From TrEMBL:
Catalytic activity from the UniProt record: GTP + H2O = GDP + phosphate + H(+)
Source organism of the structure: Guillardia theta (strain CCMP2712)
Classification lineage: Eukaryota, Cryptophyceae, Pyrenomonadales, Geminigeraceae, Guillardia
One Pfam family in the UniProt entry: GTP_EFTU_D2
Name of the protein described by the UniProt record: Translation factor GUF1 homolog, mitochondrial
InterPro entries listed in its UniProt record: EF-4 (IPR006297), EFG_III/V (IPR035647), EFG_V-like (IPR000640), EFTu-like_2 (IPR004161), G_TR_CS (IPR031157), LepA_C_sf (IPR038363), LepA_CTD (IPR013842), LepA_IV (IPR035654)
GO MF annotations, alphabetized: GTP binding; GTPase activity; mitochondrial ribosome binding
SUPFAM superfamilies to which the protein is assigned, alphabetical: EF-G C-terminal domain-like, P-loop containing nucleoside triphosphate hydrolases, Translation proteins
Cross-referenced CDD domains: EF4_II, EF4_III, LepA, lepA_C
Job description of the protein: Promotes mitochondrial protein synthesis. May act as a fidelity factor of the translation reaction, by catalyzing a one-codon backward translocation of tRNAs on improperly translocated ribosomes. Binds to mitochondrial ribosomes in a GTP-dependent manner.
Length: 600
């Protein structure tokens, strides 16, 4: 297929607006045979099917004939969520255009806008397209007006399709061919290709999807990975049709996979440049993944540590953006400290551990990375992602917390409630745009630490599920930060330690101590549950001892004559209390404790 007959494009959409269904329809319409019958080929992972989100991109090359000409249409799938926005933007960098899919009954949502902005930033041709027009409550006129108001497209430009029935899908392919420009890039130049997705397969090893920008690459050739400066040899290359189908070469403008002698998935990085030699300039925009949400992952049963270790290593083969360190906790034993791109990323990782590896795990409350400037090195900020690395306040000049640019889209009647929540979470620079009669877009800057716990659930609650939230990282801001520790009879429970903005310390302290009181069994002695900041107690609960009244143990009061025995018994009881208290050996059932710690 000549370069002018190639189109590289993506479908971008809000979750559930029908991207997978439409992708399947495109495969079917172009007679792209599936080796096994599958409902939705494009969404492979169980998590993806259940949650209806695309985590790992699945791309496919489609052959299509129109007006007697053969076309090669490369459908490049993008992960469906902002947590993966870096991966989305790399996938988009492999395209010349996108189909912006909008549910004709739901209309524009926050992710539609975020995706649109990303596509515009990448200079792509955008085809606005309404989906699900077969639905009885589809309202194409209203949605068209909305698209016009929010994104500026004329009504005539907006296509109408149903991925389910197939209506309008041929017209959509025609629009892809007519509106999206073919790739450019000379075959004569040295090889330059973008890695936009990678994964690991047991027998093949590391598979990388690449978009060739310049030059060509063939079986048996050597190439260089720009970010690591390592040389490899192509063992196999081909196109996804939709399964891996070997070809002899890939040329400028084409999309395909390569297998080479890479040992570890960490060597293949999304956004990296594959090139012929060191003189070739890297493609713009490569970034190593930056984890923004951290949590501890522990086996519920300590003897499962090895199994968990194995399961995590396996998952890491296909997700090199998770950062992992071993850690140990007095309450939970051996486990891992994990860094994720965002909350959803963390959730997906947990779910995959549970579903694909049957791991019984506990995941601690998430924290965000803080930056700190210390007196001993005032010129530099260091990042702290683990509460246990938190420096003593006396050594600190200043702290910084990460903030995000949030976009919340909702029906106007929920604006008041949502704004109130945002304000209570320290939102600033609030800005509103009314999209049409019913919808309003609220933009603001929010500390990431304020949204990692329950913000999303709260937003959904306030708006009866109608508000949607998107956010992107927006750097750091100065903040006063406190480390809150929890103690049972003076002994710290390290797994509960958390770092929060100082205005939240008391609230967090109270919440956790109350919860501890609720779940802890009464002991033979009194238990003090304390939350502390620095040396100061900020919240306290007392769990009363179960009082075994030794004086009336046998039903009758120990007689006045037997003073020594009475004393002895009381002494013993006191000693018992003292002993237990001294050791700090508060007995707590594992289950009860887990309900305090567990975030899931
Ligand atoms: P992500 O992978 O998270 O982006 O979700 P998705 O956009 O791929 O959504 P998916 O294709 O899984 O569709 C979501 C739901 O909408 C499913 O229940 C589909 O059956 C339904 N759906 C998709 N397209 C259509 C359509 O054209 N008409 C109707 N009536 N339903 C559709």
């Amino acid at each position: 297929v000549p370069q002018e007959n190639i189109r590289n494009f993506s479908i971008i959409a809000h979750i559930d607006h029908g991207k997978s269904t439409l992708s399947d329809r495109l495969l079917q319409l172009t007679n792209t045979k599936l080796s096994e019958q599958r409902d939705q080929y494009m969404d492979k992972l169980q998590v993806e099917r259940e949650r209806g989100i695309t985590v790992k991109a699945q791309s496919a090359s489609l052959f299509y004939q129109q007006d007697g000409k053969d076309y090669l249409l490369n459908l490049i799938d993008t992960p469906g969520h902002v947590d993966f926005s870096y991966e989305v933007s790399r996938s988009l960098a492999a395209c010349e255009g996108v189909i912006l899919l909008i549910d004709a009954s739901q209309g524009i949502e926050a992710q539609t806008l975020a995706n649109h902005a990303l596509a515009t930033k990448n200079g792509l041709k955008i085809i606005p397209c309404m989906n699900k027009i077969d639905l009885p409550h589809a309202d194409p006129d209203r949605v068209a007006a909305q698209v016009h108001a929010a994104l500026g497209y004329a009504k005539e430009e907006i296509l109408q399709v149903s991925g389910k029935t197939g209506v309008g899908v041929e017209e959509l392919l025609r629009a892809v061919i007519e509106r999206i420009p073919p790739p450019t890039g000379s075959l004569q130049n040295g090889l330059r290709a973008l890695v936009f997705d990678t994964w690991y397969e047991t027998f093949k090893g590391v598979v990388s999807l690449i978009r060739v920008m310049e030059g060509q690459i063939a079986h048996g050739e050597k190439f260089l990975m720009k970010s690591t400066d390592k040389t490899y040899e192509v063992h196999e290359l081909g196109i996804m049709h939709p399964e891996a189908t070997p070809v002899t070469r890939l040329q400028a403008g084409q999309v395909g996979y390569i297998l080479c002698n890479m040992k570890s998935p960490a060597e293949a990085r999304v956004g990296d440049t594959v090139c012929s030699d060191a003189s070739v300039e890297a493609l713009k925009g490569f970034q190593p993944p930056v984890p923004m949400v951290f949590a501890g992952i522990y086996p519920i049963d300590a003897s499962d540590f090895d199994a968990l270790n194995k399961a995590i290593s396996k998952l890491l083969l296909n997700d090199t953006s998770v950062s992992i360190f071993k850690e140990s906790s007095n309450a939970l034993g051996l486990g891992f400290r994990c860094g994720f791109l965002g909350l959803l990323h963390m959730d997906v990782f947990r779910q995959r551990l549970e579903q694909e590896h049957n791991a019984d795990i506990i995941i601690t409350n998430p924290t965000v990375p803080f930056r700190v400037r210390l007196k001993k090195n005032p010129k530099e900020f260091v990042t702290i992602s683990n509460p246990s690395d938190f420096p003593d306040q006396s050594q600190v000049i200043e702290f910084e917390e990460p903030v995000v640019k949030a976009s919340l889209l909702m029906p106007t009647e929920h604006l008041g409630g949502v704004m109130e929540l945002c304000t209570s979470r320290r939102a600033r620079d609030l800005d509103m745009v009314y999209l049409d009669s019913g919808q309003v877009l609220l933009k603001c800057i929010l500390p990431l630490g304020e949204i990692v716990i329950d913000f999303y659930d709260k937003i959904k609650g306030i708006s009866a599920g109608y508000a949607s939230l998107e956010y992107e990282p927006a750097g750091f801001q100065q903040a006063q930060i406190s480390k809150v520790t929890f103690h049972l009879n003076g002994k710290p429970v390290d797994a509960l330690t958390t770092i929060v903005h100082h205005t939240n310390a008391e609230q967090v302290g109270r919440r956790v101590t109350e919860k501890l009181k609720e779940v802890l069994d009464r002991q033979q002695f009194e238990v003090a549950v304390q939350a502390m900041v620095g040396g100061r107690v900020i919240a306290r609960e007392t769990i009363k001892a179960v009082r075994k009244n030794v004086l009336s143990r046998s039903g009758k009061t120990v007689g006045g004559g037997d003073v020594t025995r009475k004393k002895k018994l009381l002494e013993k009881q006191k000693e018992g209390k003292k002993k237990m208290k001294r050791i700090g050996d508060v007995e707590l059932s594992q289950d009860a404790f887990l309900t305090v710690i567990d975030n899931s």
